[in-house]
Each structure stands twice: as structure tokens, then as C-alpha cells.
Amino acid sequence: MTSAVDRLLTGDAGQIPRADARRNVERLVAAARSALAEVGVEVTTQEIAQRAGVGKGTFYRRIPSRETLLQVVLEEVLGEILATADRALADPDPWHGFTDFAAAYVRLRAESCGANEALGGAGIPGLDRLLAEIRTRLRQLVEAAQSAGRMRRDITWQDVAFLLAGVSTDTGTIGLRAEGDQWNRNLRIVLAGLEGQGRSD
């Protein structure tokens, strides 16, 4: 997949961008990625520009719009998750492949507010194809693990999608504060419940 930086630079009619232009786009992409993680999809142009250390004028000279930048960055992030899923599908041990994917997927949802919102259907334009591909990969991973007798057969791949989405946790509940790795503890509990020997009960 073409990088977010290269995709944003292709609008110059095939011309090779100046080094300073590339550096500014690289800064804006990195800033957008960190802002998406911390703030979410409502992050403003001003916030991204400040994080990148550039003015709003530079932002709009290099980027068509805030929405375009967020879409391209989220496409890159979801593309990385798809690549993880493809590696998991190639694993000769279907359960190991599934658990590796599950850990990467849940970590992303826990650590990036924007990615979590996009995966939850926040309505970011242009992501439908990638979300459909992630659904397909998840179904394939679940079916492979079930066929190998490593995952319970009394659940559907859709059940697994909701379980993985639910593993990410809020920072607090009933007066308790979550540890930084609470999502990992939650995931281990969920995986223990999913693992089985082809049971139908």
C-alpha cells in the first residue's frame, strides 16, 4: 500500500516534490496520526498544524482538507491491520495466527482513539472497503481456528468481532482505575473463553 505521505504528494501532477514540501507533509502526517490517537476524529486543523510545527497556511498548501488528511492516515493505519491479518492467515498454526492478530487489533483500538472510532463506524468517508476487508480477514481467521479445532464452534465470527471490540476498556469503572495494560488482561480472559476443542455446547 502506498504510504500516506506519498498519496498526499501525488497531487502535484507527477512532479517530484521539493524536499521541504515532503518534510512538511511528513510532519503533518505524523502529527495527524498522533492527534488521531489522542484526540480522535474530531481533532482540528489547528491542533494538527501546531503538533507539526507549521502554520495553517502551510497546512492548506500541502493538504487539500482536514478530512482528506484524516482519511489518508486512517487508511494507512487500517492497511497495517490488514497486513497483520494477512500474516496471521499465513501462520501454519491457525490459533496462533488468530491470537497474534487479536492482540494487534485490540492494542490498536486501545491505544488510538481515532482508529477505535473508525473501526466502530464513526463514518469517516472512504473507509468502507478497508472495513469490509478487515471483516473478511476476521471471518477467515475465526473459521480457520474453528476448523483446526482450536476455537469453540458455538460462536460466530461476528460474535468474535464484538468480543474483540469490547476488550478495550474505559479508564475507570465503579470507582476503579484501569491499569495501562488492562486491555491485555481483558484479551487473555476473552481468548481463554474462545479457545476450545471444537465444542458445540
Automatic annotation (TrEMBL):
GO terms for molecular function: DNA-binding transcription factor activity; transcription cis-regulatory region binding. Keywords: DNA-binding, Transcription, Transcription regulation. Residues 22-81 form the HTH tetR-type domain. Gene3D superfamilies: Tetracycline Repressor, domain 2. Pfam families: TetR_C_43 (PF21597), TetR_N (PF00440). Coiled coil: none annotated. Residues 44-63 bind DNA. This is TetR/AcrR family transcriptional regulator. It comes from Nocardia stercoris.
